[in-house]
Amino acid sequence: MVFDLRKVFSRRQPELTRTECAEPEIVTPGRGGAALVNERLARYLDLLMTYDAMAAAYAGRGTVRHLDRDDKEYTASDEWAETHYFSVGEDAIRIVVQALTANLRPPPRSILDFPSGSGRVTRHLRAFFPAARIIACDLYPSHVEFCRTHLAVDGMVSKENLSELDFGATFDLIFCGSLMTHLPAPLVGAGLELIARSLSDRGVAIVTLQGRHSEHIQKHKWKYLDDALFDVALEGMQGSGFGYVDYDHDFRRTFDQQTNYGVSLIRPDWIMARLQAIPDIRILGFAERAWDDHHDVVVFGKPSVNADA
After folding, report:
1. How far apart are CA 242 and CA 206, in angstroms?
2. Max intra-chain CA distance, the chain
3. CA dihedral over 196, 197, 202, 204, signed as positive or negative
4. What does the mean pLDDT of the chain come to?
5. pLDDT reported for residue 47
6. Which of 34, 57, 128, 131 has the greatest number of C-beta atoms within 10 Å?
7. If you average pLDDT over residues 22-42, what whole number do you get?
8. Is the link from the previous residue into 303 a cis peptide, with omega within 30 of 0?
9. pLDDT-based confidence at 33, cuts 50/70/90?
10. Would you say 208 and 295 are in contact if contact means Cβ atoms under 8 Å apart?
11. What is the DSSP letter of 164?
12. Which fold has domain 40-301?
């Protein structure tokens, strides 16, 4: 027998009754329906709602738009540069909220922005967490004073030798953007240890790095510095996992408080090994190109990896 498929598919199909195509029964967990069995999921969903409400308030109140024209992170006066400056700060909030919710942390009561510059990220932290105590810490006093005066935060001047620095407090959240990206290995190690000992009992630290993607940027997007200098840092990263080179003299004159200031390139395995050597912390996350599509982000915090909490 030969079937004419055109006739088969042209036949009127019977309509399905509601009984034959019933909607699945939906029970909303914890909202008048069955309670969630997994407590961590329940906490996570509650935190999502908390941060969603905070995000709406943040968008509504906006951020301080006043800029410090001497800010070393704000290097141009055109419209694109200003838009990008604020975009980078907003992207930091995305990373912060992502880290806090993923690790079941409530909104922080104490925050350190280190280094703060003149508030590229600080202004967004203040707008998103209006009830938190925020300290802006930077090596350059004019940056700290700008944040104090215009962003309603406390301020502290940093030290070049990070082993000698003591914040005099611990923090629920530490955001460390664009610091380890410019320091030689001994100072990166000292900086990680400083951040670890400055965390509260359930504090979270977010540290940005330049890693494997930097070679692609140098070759195809923009120049961190002259190719010959960049290759020094690149060879170090490809060899030991960490590479560093100072900026040339003319550029470093802008950063006259520092003996060493340059470009550091850090492979994921190097940073993980350093964090594993620090006692009483827990590695909470890592992502390449997570901040502004080029900085890697590592997240760590307390309690320690073997703590009950």
Report:
1. 19
2. 91
3. negative
4. 90
5. 98
6. 128
7. 69
8. yes
9. low
10. yes
11. G
12. Rossmann fold (3.40.50)
pLDDT of 253: 65
CA dist., res. 305 & res. 309, Å (int): 9
Three-class DSSP category at 77: coil
Decide: helix, strand or coil at residue 42: helix
Q: 221-280 pLDDT, tens per residue?
A: 999 999 999 999 999 999 999 999 999 866 656 777 788 899 999 999 999 999 999 999
CB hemisphere CA count around 135 (13 angstroms): 19
- Domain residue limits, the chain: 40-301
Phi-psi region of 211 (alpha: psi -120 to 50; beta: other; left: phi over 0): beta
Regarding beta strands 171-176 and 199-209, do their DSSP bridges make them parallel or antiparallel, or are they unpaired? parallel
Structure tokens at 21: 């195509």
Radius of gyration, CA atoms only, the chain: 25
Using a CB cutoff of 8 Å and minimum separation of 24, what contacts does 182-186 make? 182/261, 182/262, 182/263, 182/264, 183/244, 183/260, 183/261, 183/264, 184/244, 184/260, 184/262, 184/264, 185/242, 185/244, 185/264
> What pLDDT does 75 receive?
61
One-letter amino acid at 244 equals Y
Angle at which helix 213-220 crosses helix 227-240, to 10 degrees, equals 160
pLDDT for residue 18 is more than 70:
no
Q: For residue 215, give every residue at least 6 positions away whose Cβ sits within 8 Å of its Cβ, in sequence order, or none.
A: 234
Six-digit token string for 278: 């620090």
Percentage of the chain beyond pLDDT 90 is 79
Distances (CA, A) of 154 to 111, 148, 206: 10, 6, 20
Burial 257-295 (b: 16+ CB within 10 A, else e): eeebbbbbbbbbebbeebbeebeebbebbbeebbbbebb
Cβ count within 10 A of residue 170: 15
